[in-house]
Amino acid sequence: KKPWPSMIRTIWNDDERDIESLIPRFYEPRPELSSPGTFGRVDALWNVTESLGVSGEMIYSFDQSQPARTSAGYLIRHSPQLSSSGELRYLNPQNVTYADFAAQYALTDKYAFIGSVSFDLDEGTVRRSRMGLRREFPGFYLRADFVYDNVQDEVSFGFTFQPIGVPLFDRGLE
Hints:
Structural class: mainly beta
Radius of gyration: 18 Å
Largest sheet: 10 strands, antiparallel
């Protein structure tokens, strides 16, 4: 039997600042970027098999006396070259449900194609889509992305530099 690790954390904030975000968050590496509020967070990750993982998270706002964010997701390693992930999340303060999907395909040992799309299930529209090519170097990744953002009504092309082996940076799907 595989263990079901989970983390439960309650954050009490006595700060009198105005709350800017409807979904409270605490960012441990950069507390100054946190969204104040009194909330509890429960998340769980279960590696069902060597190739399938599922996760879930709930952020409960004690200020609003209701869940602020609820989500569930999966990660599948189809083969050593292909991985995919998905997440379904409900944002209670805005009464919206989003679905995100991503895939990563290793073209060679150094190059990978990455694609993702985010849907607004309530509106039935694409929120954002991205296609990118990532190159791995000995100490970092370099990625070129083409992004269509329907929410901001923007199309962009950009580059991302991501160090390898630095805590808080993940090599996985976004």
